[in-house]
Specification:
alpha+beta; Nucleotidyltransferase, domain 5; eight-stranded mixed sheet; seven-stranded mixed sheet; 21 helices; about 45% helix
Amino acid sequence: MTVPSSPPSRLVERPELLRARLRAVPAQPGVYLFRGPDGSVAYVGKSSSLRARLRSYFTAPQAHPARIRQLVESAVDFEVVATGTEQEALILENTLIKRHHPRFNVRLRDDKNYLYVRVPLPQLAEGGSPDAARRQVAFPRPELTRRLRPDGARYFGPYTDAGSLRRSLRELRTVAPFRACSDAVFRRGRVCLDFHLGICAGPCENRISAEGHARLLDQAADFLAGRTEEVRRELQESMREASADLDYERAASLRDRLRAIDRLTAEQARVPRAGGTVDVVGLAMGKGIGMAAVLPVREGRVQGAERHPLMGLGEVEPQEILSSFLSQHYASAPSVPARVAIPWEVADRQLLEEYLTARRGAAVRMVVPQRGHLLRAVRLAEQTAQAALEQARLRDDFDAGRAAQVLEALRSLLGLDRPPRRIECYDISNTMGEQSVGSMVVFEDARPKPSHYRIFAIREVEGPNDFASMEEVIRRRFRHLAQPADESLGTRPDLVIVDGGEGQLAAADRALRELDLGTLPHFGLAKRFEELHQVGGPPLHLAQGSEPLFLVQRVRDEAHRFAITRHRQRRQRAGMRSRLDEVTGLGPKRKRALLAHFGSVGGIREATLEQLVAVPGITRPVAAALKELL
């Protein structure tokens, strides 16, 4: 068994080395990182003078808040990244906070889970027959996504409630009846129920031109951006033209769309004389947690409410919390308004305004309203944040108490020394031994922790041998306990579950004994009778309908889902790569060029003919053969 090395020395324990290192820090703008004893990034900060800022941490430490003293006393190393300007430092700070999630930083929680609406730009084909592939790119459909890509599409969001967002998009189609069906349905070439309900213009049967559908997408984008009056004026003008041409059926359809606008906008709260485009920000703070609310006001109407949980508040001053939220929120926002109304002043207001101006491409002003309608809007945002914080706190307190009861019951049933706060579950997925993968999912306090999920591509086993594959996965995973590659692999679980019966459990047991990990509780959950197999003892039967059984079933099902999903992705990529070999004239060099340009076979499949030809070395005949194949 590997003996762990002694813990690294803290910075304050080596004063002479620390002074020398501080003298070597450049006196220019940049970002600095503190690392903890486990090597993880504990804090990320920015400064206009790295040397002065870092020195301030180690000068008169008793004068610092308890949070800063704890950071300095626990830090074992620091790093600096020099930048040209303070604005570049601000951008880099946001990037590093999202990448490392430092525990001493104020940070948005689960920002990667927010939804955006992606409205693509149509690609009108030049000449040729209007086949299904060309119609598909000429009539693109808006979609929900969790990633912002620099692909030229228009993005709106973020949205935190997926259900209400989907309902809103369906209502939006009464105003702009754009296509929403899947590509497979669209390729059938006949209208579906949506057309007869009046929420689709029927592009699959060419009942609307590509230019007309593109205009619907523009109207949808204008509506999502809050420019409802522009959409209203355009529809009114079109209705008058249709009436003048005696096209009463089209005029009636446009009248219904205008009524839909009135119905949707009548439900929006108004902020009179707020003017133009403004985001109203409110904050609410509790013990170590907080909530930010952003009310986007467009044309005097509140378009909705975005709620963003905040973590790592500690003893941080409200001004610093607000500044951190603003920089992180607008770093990934698809659009930046001309004005941002905030509840109080922030120290780096000028820097934030310059940063937001650069992101928007036009002037952005931050205002702290003192009276009037905008001040009332800020108070409304603060009330929205406070209500969301109370709801989150009640939900978390209830879930925490319930989780503690379930874990204690599971501890008693399995005879464990302590409640299994961290549960890891493993499953194997393959097709006749091909593209075999092993999944590792993690539940902490009875909740999934997706950031700690891991996938293992099976390397040592040939053919469909789930037992040997499970043994390989367990051995590779727990080798990392001594020298962890990351936080997930370096954390010892309280309970290990493998998906399967005695065979899978025996394989896992062999791997754990080989690594000499001591007493690490491990069980196999057999699906046939939902019984937990244990080494050297009879199967354990948990009561049907009990919460402990429901928990282990949920963990097992999540491991199975994760394994199946990743296996299918690998199988699809492998299948698509093998199909590329069928294209005449597409050799290894050209395949590498395509993959380097588009990132994946999926990217190649979604590319247009012109985009394929733009790749160096790809001729039009090869590109046409690719499109036909994929």
